[in-house]
Amino acid sequence: MNGDNSSSSPLIRVEGLRKSFGDHVVLRDIDFEVRPGEVVTIIGASGSGKSTLLRCINLLETPDAGHVWFHGDDLAAEHVDVNRLREKIGMVFQGFNLFNNMNVLDNCTLAPVTLRKMSKAEAEKVALEHLDSVGLSGFVRADVNTLSGGQKQRVAIARALCMQPDLMLFDEPTSALDPEIVGEVLEVMRALAAKGMTMVVVTHEMSFARNVSDEVVFMDQGVIAEKGAPEKMFTNPEMPRTREFLARYLA
What we know:
The chain has helices spanning 50-57, 82-86, 104-114, 120-133, 149-161, 179-194, 206-212, 230-235, 240-250, and strands at residues 12-21, 24-34, 39-43, 65-70, 73-74, 89-92, 167-171, 198-202, 215-220, 223-228. The chain is an alpha/beta fold and 251 residues long. Helix 3 packs across helix 4 (120-133), helix 4 packs across helix 5 (149-161) and helix 5 packs parallel to helix 6. It is globular and about 55 Å long.
C-alpha cells in the first residue's frame, strides 16, 4: 500500500459495466475496484470475459453501459481527455505488441518522447533504468526480432513503465511463452508488486494469483462469480463454479 489515503479511495472503480459483441453478451453488470498499491488477479476459463474487462478499463473496448472511474474521473464522460488519462495506465499484452522495426531502447523511448514531450536524453535515462530493472541492460541496442519471447515480454513491461503509469494492466502476459521462460516474466511482475505498483492481472498462473494478489476475481460467463482474498479463494471458495474451476489447483 502506498500511504494512508490508499485505503479510502480506489484508483480504479468499475460500476455496472456491460459489453456485447453483436448478440453475444461478454460482460454483464461488472462491479469492482482496485486501491492504490493493490494487485488484483482475474481468473476464469477462456471466454469468460477477462480480457474484455481489462480492455474496457483503459477503453481499448468501449463499454455499452456502466462506468470506469480512474483517479475519480469517469473515463466515459464527454469532457474527459481519455488519451491523457490512458497515458497513466500501462498495458502489457499477450503478444508483446513491440515495434519490430525498432531496437529495444527505441521501443521504450518512443511514447515518452512523442506523448509526454520528454527529451530524448531524459527518455533514454528512464528507459535504461527500467530495462535494467527487468534484467535487460545488456540488450539495449538489440533488434527485438532477435529476442526470446520472455525477453520481448520483459521489454514490453519496461516500455509500459517508461510512461511512469499509476496502474499496470497485464493481459495473460505469460500465455504465449514457453513454459521454461514463464518464470522470468513472473519474477519481474512479483518485483513490481513488491515495489507497490498497482496491478490488474488476467492470468492462468494460479501460483502467482495465490501468492502475489491482494484480491482474486473469478469470472464465469461474463459475470464476476466470486472475489475475495487469495487465501479464502484458494482454500475455501463459496461458489460451486469457483470450486470446480480451481479443483485441479486445490488438489
